[in-house]
Structure formats: C-alpha cells, structure tokens
Specification:
By secondary structure, this protein is of the alpha+beta class. Helix content is 37%, strand content 19%. The chain contains seven helices and four strands; from the N terminus they run αααααβββαβα. A hairpin with a 5-residue loop joins strand 2 (145-160) and strand 3. The model is unreliable at 80-86 (pLDDT under 50). Bound molecules: zinc ion.
C-alpha cells in the first residue's frame, strides 16, 4: 500500500464518520419534524394517553356524576381505561403483573394481593384503621420514579357501580393503599404531595451508572 493509499483510506474513514454523524443529527431532526407534523399542537382533554406530572389536568378535582351521566356511553367507555378521573378501580391484569414482580416475602410484608376489577362512581372514602404504613409507591403519571408514601392500613370505599347501584368495598394492605392513591387523583393530589421526600427515586438510576449515563429512558415501556 502506498503512502497515498493510506492517506486516502484514512480520509475515507474520517469522511465516513462525518457522514454518519451528520446523518445521525439529521435523523434526530427528522424524528423531531415528523413528531411535530403528526402532533403539531397540544391536544385537549379527555385524553386517551396517561398524563404526566406537571399537567394541570392532574390537579383538577373530579366532579360528581348524576344518574343520567352514568348511562352515557362516554362513562361506560371509561371503564376500559386506567386512571380515569370519575371512577376509581384496580385492574386485575395490572395488579397481577405488579404482584408477580415481587418476592413472596415482600408480598407478605406489604400485604399484597391481586385486585379484581372494580368500578366506583362518585366514590367516598372512610378510614377504618388509622394505623399508617409506609411503602414504596409509583404512579403512571410520575413515570420512571417511586417513593415511600405513608397511607392508612384499612379503608372503606363506597359509591355507585357502573350500572348506578350502591357498592362498597372494605380493604386493607396494598389494596387500601391503591384505593387511597386513586382517591387522591380524584381530588387533584399526587403521591409526590405526601411522599417521604428523601426516598424519591429514579427507578433506573443503577442503569444510568452502568451505561455511563448513555441511556435512553423511554417514555413508554412499549
Ligand atoms: Zn397514580
């Protein structure tokens, strides 16, 4: 290989790297333009996606529904969504997935159990055991974080079913904490309002270290 060829191959490598770098930046710009093209301006509630902390909609207090509202298709459709504003419930498949992530010891200490699908319209909460327990909690509207949150051990939730009939549910442990979490949403409160602040944690902090900070934290796990 002549000196000229070495020089040329080095130049080719440099130009290739510059080409890749330029196109990577272009790709980022393209992705930004593409996103702005399809989602040009903020949409308005009600949303089909889960809003994130900072969105004023999460601070609104839910209004009570009257009997006529309950029959509307819109409300019946809400039963199929998570974190709806006017109803409060546990989702069996969601709670089952979370439940299986924990060891039997943790499940026992946190009084965890799989929670059946529940719908409460105009729910009201009554504390039936004022003892407080403090366990880690996360929220779909505070994605990527968790913190210890003190909650009452046992509560009674009453309200109307999706068909408009009175229903009640006496719960303790994990289910009671979920009910309090969801009831807080209806009042425009988030767990960050009452969390033990020093325990606020990024759920992938260790991955950040393992990758030297070169990590893309997806907004959605899907
Ligand atoms: Zn939440």
């Amino acid at each position: 290989m002549t000196i000229l060829n070495v020089y040329r191959s080095k130049s080719a490598l440099v130009y290739t790297l510059i080409f890749i770098k330029r196109h990577l930046i272009t790709f980022r710009k393209f992705r930004q333009l593409y996103t702005e093209f399809w989602f040009p301006s903020p949409s308005r509630p009600p949303y089909n996606h889960i809003c994130q902390i900072g969105d004023p909609v999460l601070r609104y207090k839910a209004e009570e529904l009257n009997a006529e509202d309950i029959k509307k298709n819109e409300i019946q459709g809400v039963r199929k969504r998570i974190s709806a504003l006017t109803v409060s419930f546990g989702y069996r498949d969601v709670t089952e997935k979370i439940y299986e992530e924990f060891s039997p010891e943790i499940r026992k200490s946190r009084e965890m159990a799989i929670i059946p699908f529940k719908v409460f319209i105009n729910p009201e909460l009554k504390i039936t055991n004022y003892e407080k327990v403090c366990f880690p909690e996360a929220c779909e509207s505070v994605r990527g974080f968790s913190a210890d949150v003190p909650r009452y051990r046992e509560v009674l939730v009453t309200g109307l079913s999706a068909e408009g009939k009175p229903v009640s549910w006496q719960v303790s442990g994990w289910a009671a904490r979920i009910v309090q979490h969801e009831m807080d949403h209806l009042s425009g409160r988030l767990y960050t309002d009452i969390m033990v602040r020093s325990t606020f944690t990024c759920t992938c902090w260790d991955k950040v270290n393992r990758t030297g900070g070169r990590i893309y934290v997806p907004f959605s796990p899907k």
